[in-house]
Q: What sequence folds into this?
């Protein structure tokens, strides 16, 4: 008999999202990770949350998230395998002991553990919750065009954002808060996690130069869509960067889009006039 939790909407959507990310080419091998914040009341119809299978140290203090549950991908797991064996490749944890301990409620059935970037995820969740109490998702992946762009483009967040906004009218609609960019840093450390979280206070997308991107949102759909839109803009840029540009979307036009949709573009990212 299949486990009731396999029918839970949040798990079904996590499986679909991981599969879509792999099919987009964003998560080769065991690259990338996802975490989804859940209320225990969402989980309890599908799982006995009083049963703790085992505990693991998180390697991080997160007192503000104590008692919070997360569905997340496993360390060393391939996104392409998530649909075929969710209990092995995904896990559901509850933070305890001021966030220093993860109580495994379900998953990681082969004795595995949560992604090694859990501390970075928890830092970003905390940062985004300070800006938006409805924030629930942190997603990390390796979109090829955004990575390629970090080799040839100025990494200044304003310059990077303006280029993406100019590639497609939709971009300023989807991420009016822009994109922040970090220079290359050693991944899998609390240092890059803290640097990413600091950038999450002003944008939901943080590019890791020569590595990938972190995205945050209120749902798996929203976060996937943020990254998807930025990656498409980066693809357009990489196709035309070496060519003479005959036209572009001007700042005046970007302001027109923002005004029409009642959006507030990131302060200081648009010129006051077009030269």
A:
């Amino acid at each position: 008999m299949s486990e009731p939790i396999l029918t839970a909407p949040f798990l079904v959507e996590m499986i679909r999202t991981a599969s879509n990310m792999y099919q987009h080419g964003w998560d080769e091998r065991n690259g990338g990770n996802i975490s989804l914040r859940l209320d225990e009341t969402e989980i309890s119809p599908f799982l006995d949350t009083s049963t703790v299978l085992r505990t693991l140290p998180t390697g991080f203090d997160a007192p503000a998230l104590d008692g919070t549950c997360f569905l997340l991908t496993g360390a060393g797991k391939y996104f392409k395998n998530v649909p075929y064996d969710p209990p092995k490749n995904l896990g559901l944890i509850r933070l305890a002991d001021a966030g220093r301990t993860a109580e495994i409620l379900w998953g990681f059935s082969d004795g595995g553990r949560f992604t090694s970037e859990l501390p970075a995820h928890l830092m970003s969740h905390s940062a985004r919750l300070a800006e938006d109490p409805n924030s629930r998702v942190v997603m990390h992946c390796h979109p090829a065009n955004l990575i390629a762009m970090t080799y040839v483009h100025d990494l200044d967040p304003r310059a990077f954002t303006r280029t993406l906004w100019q590639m497609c009218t939709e971009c300023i609609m989807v991420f009016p808060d822009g994109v922040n960019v970090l220079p290359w840093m050693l991944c899998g450390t609390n240092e890059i996690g803290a640097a990413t979280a600091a950038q999450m206070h002003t944008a939901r997308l943080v590019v890791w130069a020569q590595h990938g991107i972190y995205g945050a949102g209120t749902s798996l759909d929203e976060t996937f869509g943020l990254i998807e839109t930025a990656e498409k803009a980066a693809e357009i840029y990489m196709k035309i960067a070496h060519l003479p540009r005959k036209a572009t979307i001007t700042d005046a036009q970007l302001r027109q889009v923002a005004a029409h949709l009642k959006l507030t573009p990131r302060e200081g990212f648009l010129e006051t006039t077009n030269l």
